[in-house]
Amino acid sequence: MPLSRKRLESLSPWLVTLGLFALWELVVRLFGIPNYILPAPSQSLAEGWTYKGPIAEHALQTLYTTSVGFALAVGFGMFLGVAVGSSKIVYRAFYPVLVGFNSVPKVALVPILVIWFGIGTVPAILTAFLISFFPVVVNVATGLATLEPELEDVLRVLGATRMDVLLKVGIPRSLPFFFASLKIAVTLAFVGSVISETVASNSGIGYLMMSASSKFNVPLVFAGLMVIAAMGVGMYEFFAMLERRFTSWAHRG
């Protein structure tokens, strides 16, 4: 019985993922690649199951630092995005600084954070924050800055103040941009947390992967990568669901 288009669409992410894993497994076994170079997915999953306790503990730490850093990025990014998007003076003043700051590799900031705060949770939270607030600022500012001038003029003629235009039209209209930025920012937050954990932490998936690599336990390294990917996909889907819930008016179908 052929699958309907809607059913095929819902199953396509699983089919592609399973297909990639199957291809990976086949290539490793076909060419006899040793597991200290590229382990098969089955070997990584088996190693992950063996170390499921430590992996769960370190994954919770990474999820915690990522969530806190991401929450800070959303709050700060929303505030700064509204300021930048609603004022040309603030836009011209801050945008070059923001672009310049975003051009700095965040891994270069980790040693500075370690000097200031020591190794552990705080550098991971701050790295997640620093790497993920920029997309929120840019998208919120873009949503506000692209408000049609004609619409703004009409609202002004009808007696709306600048604050009314911002709160009742500008911010609601920028919600699709805002939720789109959340999906980007949350994946970047994971990148920031793991970067910091690999350099300056005694816990987290990044630390687990560095510890495993020092013992040439490459299957465990790949198991850590799979856990990070799974958490990233889970968070992405969560914010995609929120986007569909709160901005359904902006999407077709």
Concise description?
It is flat, with a radius of gyration of 22 Å. It has helices spanning 5-31, 41-50, 52-86, 88-103, 110-117, 121-145, 149-157, 162-200, 205-214, 218-246. It is mainly alpha-helical.
Give the termini separation: 26 Å
Instruction: Give me the Rg, rounded.
Output: 22 Å
Q: Quickly give the structural class.
A: mainly alpha
Give the overall silhouette: flat
The chain-level mean pLDDT equals 88
Number of β-strand runs: 0
Low-confidence stretches: none
Figure out the total of helices: 10
Give the percentage of residues in beta strands: under 5%
What percent of residues adopt helix (DSSP H or I)? over 70%
Largest sheet: none
Following the backbone from N to C, one meets helices and strands in this order, namely HHHHHHHHHH
Characterize the structure shown.
This protein has helices at residues 5-31, 41-50, 52-86, 88-103, 110-117, 121-145, 149-157, 162-200, 205-214, 218-246. It has 253 residues and is an all-alpha fold. The longest helix is centred in the last third of the chain and has 39 residues, at 162-200. The model has no long low-confidence stretch (mean pLDDT 88).
